[in-house]
Structures are given as C-alpha cells and as structure tokens.
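Entry type: protein chain
Record version: 2
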Amino acid sequence: MGYSKEDIPDHFMRRWQDYADLMAKAANVPAALVMRVWPEQIEVLVASVSDGNPYDAQEMSDLGTGLYCETVMSTRQMLSVPDALSSPAWAHNPDVALGMVCYLGLPLVWPDDSIFGTVCILDTHAGGFSAAAHTLLQQLKNTIEADFRAIGAPDGDDGHPELASRFEASARAMAGGR
C-alpha cells in the first residue's frame, strides 16, 4: 500500500475538521470526534470546534480503560449508548466523568481491513440520537473511508467528491440553519 498509517496529509485533516464541525452542528451535540488507535493508546485526531466540547485534538488516552470507542473497535460495529448513567456497563466509562453520557460511534477501517479508529458523536444529554444523526454519521464514516483509499492511491486521488458532497448537503439540511 502507498499510505503510511501515521501520516494523514494536511488537506485530509482540514477536511475532516470541517466534517467534524459540521457533524456536531447538525446533530446539535458538543462533540464530534475522529479517533485514531495506536498500540497502547487512542488519540483524538480531530475534535469538533463546538460549544461544550471537552476533547482536544491530539489528546491521548490509554486503552483498556473502558472507553466507548474501544468497544466499537473490538466489535467493528456501531455502538449506541443513549444513557450511560442508567447502564451498569457504561456508568463508569471515563467519558462520563466529562459529562458525556450519550454516545454514537462507528469503526473506521483502513483499506487493508485494519482498524484506524472511530468516528463518533457525544452528548451531555441522555436520550440517544435521531435516525437522521445515525444516517449522517454513517455517511461521514463512508466519506472518511473513501479518503483512506485516496490516501493510499498512487495517482494522488483526492477522495470521492460525491460522497463528501452528499455528507455536506445532508449535514447542512439537518442543521437547518443552526
């Protein structure tokens, strides 16, 4: 493969930052994150710039502490936690200490089928996320994974603009002028 898992080109990082900001606004949540896993830690690679977001880009957390994202990566499945405080499995999750009691996340997978990390949204209000938020997060996953294929392309491919356009249009419609 032509990519290095450690190096994400700057223009993709800027694009993902825009996407995270748009996702947080559309879902009306304080945090939209792109997470990258390392051998013993997980990194907040991109954090939405949004009111109430307690996460900072490049922030690192140890694995094995019960983070929501660890379950997403190990199961390779969507995880929806509508109210961590009412769930014995999630009540002591480290994100709860930050007030993040509602979570929705999906795995991000490299073209070689290895786990990159997750894309997720978190909220301080329990109750879960709308079907529209689920759909939008899936579109964001698809868009970022298309970018992974572009990163590995030898011809300097710049991703799949049709996926990016669809995500952006859906997010703006969902945000409804917020």
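Comment: The two ends are 41 Å apart (CA to CA).
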